[in-house]
Amino acid sequence: MLKKLYHQFASPKTYIVLVNKMYPYVFYISLCIYTVALIWGLAFAPADYLQGNSFRIMYLHVPASFLSQSLYLAMAIAAAVFLIWKVKLAAYMIKAIAPIGALVTFIALISGSIWGIPTWGTWWQWDARITSTLILFIMYLGLISLHSSFTNFEKADKFISVLVLIGFVNIPIIKKSVDWWSTLHQPASITLTDKPSIDPSMLYPLFFSMIGFSGLIICLVILSSKVQIFNREASKSWVKDNV
Amino acid sequence: MFNFAFNSFNDFIYMDGHGIYVWSVFCIVIVSVISMFMFYKNELKKLKKKHFYE
Fold it and tell me: Which domain holds residue A232?
């Protein structure tokens, strides 16, 4: 039974049928949640007593930062699945996630830099959090360009999977950089173990903006993975019916 | 929790001088996400055309 399920869900065809059904629901629900969260956060949440209204950048910056690391984690899981079980779909997902990961990391870096101008008095500082996030962005770009430089896709998939797993060491560094080193960036306000240090009037819209933005980014990953699958499986007969 | 945090629409745009930072980030996020959606939709359209004519 497990073997049957594994073969069914590891198949690109099953994946395409499933995401084609899911996509409109995920897209419209996420769009509504994100729109409501942004209106709530930008117009209705009270101004911060220290940062004033510049704290509202948080509703755009935090979801992007969270996803820049989450997408890399997803790529690392896909890389492990590909290397251990040789699941083709996992290799396609790595290639599909990389450009979206680069986009959200770019958003996290730019929004953080702009937020830094009124808050820290500088748009850039070579501190641990910002530098490790810049390394993550360069890693995403490197993975995209390296994969494209191969003519043999199977070799490229293996090589990129190993690189993704090696690069994963940067994720705990990004996460813990604010605790391990003295940085301009503040420590995490929301953790799994402690009570959030943000007032609920600011926390709820942040929570919804993270859900809404994550949903929209999942939709982008779905579109990107469809492009990957249709390109790589172009010779298969089922592609014509599902494209 | 659901009171408009500003006295007027102009205050909302200006945000005590922080509007330039907040709205520029807002525009960057919206434009980059929409551009990415358009890019992939366009790629899928091209693939559809390619498979239709094959």
Answer: 16-189+198-242
